[in-house]
Design a protein that fits this description.
- This protein has 164 residues and is mainly alpha-helical.
- It has helices at residues 3-14, 45-54, 66-71, 83-93, 107-111, 114-127, 140-152, and strands spanning 31-35, 58-63, 137-138.
- Helix 2 links the parallel strand 1 (31-35) and strand 2 (58-63).
- Helix 6 (114-127) runs antiparallel to helix 7 (140-152).
- It is globular, with a radius of gyration of 18 Å.
- The chain starts with a helix and ends in a 12-residue tail after the last helix.
């Protein structure tokens, strides 16, 4: 890759246009949210994770799927689960407006369970022997913690702002 192309790629990671007003605003971080999609992970997952590391892109990964993170707001999850099973389990809870067909959420119903979801995600990672390859696994709480800290001030994971 030529030097100018390499510089352009780094520039894209540092800043990218959202609107004319913030066209050159630098990002603090760049994140990619990835679902493993059990039972058959995408064949390019390992390469995607390696590429993200090489370019300083943070990854929030859920195994089997993002719905695991949502389920953790309401209950413990400890056994292997496919994406379809996690989605059906979230729908059956009937607590946050989620349906497999619509994939819509009512955030207000998730808000109160954020602290428990964060703790449950940490427990899953502590139990893991194969990192993200373990099922269930999620580190979406890392990204959500940073977003909440940016929104409400303070440090990621701090409890000083309650369940806003």
């Amino acid at each position: 890759m030529s030097r100018s192309r390499s510089s352009a790629r780094r520039s894209t990671i540092r800043s990218a246009p959202h609107s004319a007003g913030d066209r050159w605003t630098e990002y603090d971080e760049v994140w990619c949210v990835i679902d493993v999609e059990a039972p058959v992970p995408h064949e390019g997952l390992t390469a995607a994770l390696k590429l993200a590391r090489q370019h300083g892109v943070e990854v929030a990964l859920s195994n089997p799927c993002f719905e695991l993170w949502l389920l953790l707001h309401f209950k413990d999850m400890s056994g292997y689960c496919t994406s379809a099973a996690a989605q059906r389990a979230l729908e059956r809870l009937d607590t946050c407006g989620y349906s497999v067909d619509r994939k819509h959420l009512e955030y207000g119903s998730l808000r109160a369970g954020h602290g428990q979801a964060e703790q449950r995600a940490q427990v899953l990672r502590q139990r893991a022997t194969k990192g993200h390859a373990d099922n269930p696994w999620t580190d979406v709480d890392r990204l959500v913690g940073l977003l909440r800290a940016a929104r409400y001030g303070g440090r990621p994971g701090s409890r000083e702002h309650g369940n806003r």
